[in-house]
Design goal:
seven-stranded antiparallel sheet, globular, 11 strands, 5 helices, 25% strand, alpha+beta
């Protein structure tokens, strides 16, 4: 797909998927860095019995603590910082934004349950799924304009592992958001019917990119294996 064809598809659908973006050595380094970040943040949390400020977690209905994401991460490992400043990724983001870009968000999502019950932690009880939502209004409230999200698949992401679901073209129309007690604003089914979703199953090493206004979601990871994404958000410089 040519650059212009990719930009046209992105404008129409709001997302792109590129397999084989990461080489084997880079993928290995990123996995090791994600493991180390997990050990550092979770080790701190469990040993001090106090949630690390980088950690987003909740409790599953069966009582297990569930690690959703660690944010930010670029300062935790040089390889994260190198990828955030990767020329190909920056070029892709700037091409889709038609502007020079600035990194405005970075995180690793894990979708992993802990064996340690962490009974001392007062956590909301939620499921594993991430409900339908878009991030644009949240970013706008923080003072950012249009944002392009880029996710690098550090593991295979089949549907059973909670692969990203997107609603093509939803970034080009207004969608309603309804408040929830613990999951932020979510998009009602009427604005994003299930049958219109596309599941982006992707092998490890793939790159996924989407407009932050795109409605997206993800299901539970039922594989028993890691499903880690290294996620960057890019906004237009000066926005």
């Amino acid at each position: 797909m040519t650059g212009e064809a990719a930009r046209h598809r992105f404008r129409q659908d709001g997302y792109l998927a590129i397999e084989g973006f990461l080489g084997r050595e880079t993928l290995s380094q990123l996995r090791a860095a994600a493991d180390l970040a997990f050990e550092q943040v979770i080790g701190h949390t469990l040993s001090l019995r106090s949630a690390h400020p980088r950690l987003t977690w909740w409790r599953l209905p069966d009582g297990r603590p569930y690690i959703f994401k660690i944010k930010p991460v670029v300062d935790l490992a040089p390889v994260f910082a190198r990828m955030a400043a990767n020329g190909e990724i920056e070029l892709l983001a700037s091409s889709m934004l038609a502007a020079k870009t600035t990194l405005m968000e970075d995180k690793v999502t894990y979708k992993a349950a802990l064996a340690d019950q962490a009974g001392w932690a007062d956590l909301p009880v939620l499921g594993e799924d991430v409900r339908k939502h878009s991030d644009a209004s949240y970013f706008a409230a923080r003072g950012f304009g249009r944002v392009i999200t880029v996710a690098l698949c550090l593991d295979d992401c089949p549907a059973a592992a909670g692969a990203l679901q997107v609603w093509p073209g939803s970034h080009r129309r207004p969608v309603r958001h309804e408040p929830t007690p613990n999951q932020g604003p979510v998009v009602p089914d009427g604005d994003a019917p299930d049958h219109q979703a596309v599941t982006l199953e992707a092998p490890a090493g793939s790159l996924l990119a989407w407009d932050a206004a795109l409605v997206h979601a993800s299901g539970p990871n039922s594989t028993g294996r890691p499903r880690r994404l290294l996620v960057f958000g890019y906004s237009a410089s000066g926005s």
